[in-house]
Amino acid sequence: MAKKATKKVTKKKTARKRSSDVAAAKALASSAKKAIIQPDADGEIDDVEAVKRLHDARDAVVEELRKTIVGMDQVIDEVLIAIFSRGHGLLEGVPGLAKTLLVSSIAKTLSLTFKRIQFTPDLMPSDITGSELLQDDPETRERKFMFSKGPIFSNIVLADEINRTPPKTQAALLEAMQEKIVSAGGDDYALEPPFFVLATQNPLEQEGTYALPEAQLDRFMFKINVSYPSEQEEIDIMRSVTGSGGAALGEVLGREDILALQDLVTRVPVADHIFQYVAALVRATRPGEENAPGFIKDFVSWGCGPRACLNLITGAKARAILRGRFNASLEDVQALALPVLRHRMGLNFAAQSEGVDSDHVIGRLLEEIPSDKALYEKEATSA
Fold first, then answer.
1. Which residues contact 32 (CB under 8 A, 6 or more apart)?
2. Which residues contact 228 (CB under 8 A, 6 or more apart)?
3. What is the CATH number for 305?
4. Residue 346: which domain range?
5. Torsion of the alpha carbons at 226, 229, 230 and 233, rounded to the nearest 10
6. Whose CA is closest to 285, among 381, 173, 364?
7. Out of 55, 64, 179, 244, which residue is the most buried by the measure of CB atoms under 10 Å away?
8. Nearest residue to 257 (alpha-carbon basis) of 35, 42, 72
9. pTM of this prediction?
């Protein structure tokens, strides 16, 4: 009996020790997250110091993602920029390129809730937003209609193969993206920030797809092209997937850090000549503009709207922060020109017949639109 009692006491002590260790680990992780962005004694945040810490955190996020994702460095970078800019992303690529794994891994490293919605031809809007169901009220015990939230009520939502569902269902998702609320039964339900939708679609030449209208495409900050991996990356993928299994992902940033970073993006300064360059670049995509290049008038039916300017500036700010700088540069703008502009211009038949795509047009624009700071300063002085 004494031995049994001793064993029970030992087991209890071991269980308590394990529980204590787990609690200590959670506390350590929590304190590490809080230490990334913290106000000083006066409640103020040192923006420059915050940028340095967030740059280090960004590197840690990328390192964590490399445990499960091979290659795709540029895709990861653009997705993170979109998240921290309060934007949404549209990924286009053929099936089997680990788009779903990428998004779920990002949600894990950022400590955010994640839901995946598989878009199919029979998907209804209520399958996304939620619906009212007859339920028992836990307080009054009365049966009444209560709103049951759909998968849209998550921090990161993966809209998988969005172009395989009819326009009515697409519109329900895109409206929630724009308004950040869901309306049902006469009530509005706010989506908890941070809220980010990453939609994927297969190339439009595949059968069974519904092209997103131009007005709805414009709501996506970025259109990110996901290409096939290189030969070495494909070999690394085979080794990783067919091996004993990768390491578990850790949480690098917390929800409060992301919200603070999103606020920090709005405070990043932008020089006047960068505003002027962005305006010149976007206006040059419009064939009706007097100063539009000849190839724009030859190949483009309609150009980019003002939202392209806003997304270029906001994205440039976020990109600068993630690289440890507290000022946006022309390099930041030019690096984001493709994902911001490629889905906002329409090419005509002449472009299609000659094999000219939007990336080719944007590349030529970046070569032709002057980026000399002195030139824009001179124009501003003369005006």
1. none
2. 94, 97, 234
3. 1.10.8.80
4. 268-383
5. 140
6. 364
7. 64
8. 35
9. 0.82
DSSP string for 188-230 = EEEPPSS-EEEEEE--TTSSS--PPPHHHHTT-SEEEE-PPPP
State pLDDT tens for residues 87-145: 999 998 888 888 888 888 999 999 899 999 999 889 998 899 888 787 777 777 778 77
User: What sections of the chain are H helices per DSSP?
Assistant: 2-34, 47-65, 73-84, 99-109, 126-129, 167-179, 214-217, 231-241, 255-266, 272-283, 294-299, 306-322, 330-335, 337-341, 349-353, 358-368, 373-382
Rounded CA separation 141/190 (Å): 26
CB atoms within 10 A of CB 354: 11
Query: How confident is the model over 149-174, as pLDDT tens digits?
Result: 889 999 999 999 888 888 888 888 88
Which tokens is 90 given? 């549209």
The H-or-E segment that residue 118 falls in is strand 114-118
Q: Is 141 exposed, middle or buried (0-12, 13-18, 19+ CB in 10 A)?
A: exposed
Domain identity same for 160 and 120:
yes
CA distance 73 to 77: 6
Structure tokens at 317: 């700010």
Residue with tokens 């001179």: 378
- Residue 37's SS3 state is coil
Buried/exposed code over 267-291 (b: 16+ C-beta within 10 A; e: otherwise): ebebeebbbbbbebbbbbbbbeeee
CB 130 within 8 A of CB 104: no
What φ, ψ does residue 76 adopt, rounded to 5°? -60, -45
CA atoms of 200 and 23, how far apart (whole Å): 39
